[in-house]
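Dear colleague,

Thank you for sharing your sequence with our group. We've completed the structure prediction you requested, and as agreed, I am returning the results in plain text so they can be pasted directly into your records. Please verify that the sequence below matches your submission; if there's any discrepancy, let me know and we will rerun it promptly.
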Amino acid sequence: MTNQKFYLITGLFFQEDTALGIGMDPQIGERATIQKVIKHALFSGVIDTQSNVGALQDHYGTSNLIIKELKDDSIEFIKTYDRQGHSFTYHFFKNDDGEYIGYWENKKMKMRGLARCTIKGIDPTEFFQYKDIPEKLKKFTSKHLEEFED
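Please find the predicted structure tokens below.
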């Protein structure tokens, strides 16, 4: 995974939590209940392997990444949310299908969960060129860019 400077990362993480609800009790009728639930959130972002930093966006906010370890078959990074300041360490290992499977944790908050992601290397100069964009989209894009140039 170290042959590109930039990587796009997209994934999903899971977190065990509790939720309040209302249940039926045959003796007293309705009553409050506490149930275990599994929450999930999508995340996406970019990793810069030359600077060992990155950024992610998810349901909980924007976060910065610091890469602790980067190998061909694994990555470990610390994700720190901009507003809350909470930090989580992510550990991912590449499986035979090229996906990264792992877990996240925050030892101080006693939190841990599973995570899964795909990581794709990109070349920024090629990423923003329109060589593989369909003709209809090229016409749409160039037309709207001309409107902004006026």
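Summary note from our side: Residues 43 and 57 are 6 Å apart (CA to CA).

Kind regards,
the structure core
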